[in-house]
Amino acid sequence: MDVLEAIALNPNYHDVLTILKGFRNGIVYGSRIRFPHALVMAFLFKSGSTKDKLRYIFKATKQHAQNLGTFAVIYKTAMFIQKKLNGGKHADIHTFVAGLLGGYYVFGENNAINQQVKGNLLFIYIYIYKVKFGGIKKKKKFISNFVIQIVLYIFARVAIALVKVPVQRKIIEAPKHTYPIFAAVSWGMVMYLFQCEENTLQPSLRASMQYIYRDSDSWNSLRTLIWHNK
How far is CA 49 from CA 43, 53, 79, 105, in A? Predict the structure, then answer.
């Protein structure tokens, strides 16, 4: 155990171990955020046996946790490699490139959970626009923010639906390979914004990204590297 503790605290291994902790934090956060959501959705809105509902909860939680953990590994590995290639220095553009790679590989598959994540990212970009250009007022903050979140949530879904209309009406053929590109660019943009325009992001998103991508850069023992975040 002393040997492992020494490795965990050795500065020479810090950049590599941030990848390990990033994976750990992604798994933990993905489980925490998806399990209660899947639990409510399963027992309030899904039909079927209790066994089927429990299977759905496990599958949704596992997929979300695995996606965030894998993305963290790819993102931090890409950041590490780019830093090495750039003479040991980070550059802001590295975050976009790393997010692009992770988004394409992890979230490029068009499934229910990934679609929900993309819809939320579109909502976030609209939210950022409203913040930067003064659309959100501080007066009656709770009520106005609550209403804005609902409206922007609906708008994000409408925007996605409108893209599908020409295809369903057979005006154009369904484009191929566009979803992985959309996923890659979305994640590249949100990682860049987190690095360069953090205050424009939603507080809840900011907190989750802080936990997965920044808290994983520091620890003071083997315990806070693997078992606990802090």
Answer: 10, 6, 45, 34
* CA Rg value for the chain: 20
Tokens of 192: 């860049």
Question: Could you identify the residue written with the tokens 């955020």?
Answer: 33
Cα–Cα dist 81/199, whole Å: 27
Record the tokens describing residue 3, joined without a space: 């040997």
Query: Widest CA span of the chain, in angstroms?
Result: 66
Q: Are the C-beta atoms of 72 and 29 separated by less than 8 Å?
A: no
Confidence of residue 78 (pLDDT cuts 50, 70, 90): very high
Structure tokens at 88: 């040991």
Q: What is the pTM of this model?
A: 0.81
E-strand ranges in the chain read: none
> What is the spatial distance between Cα 145 and Cα 97, in angstroms, rounded to a whole number?
32
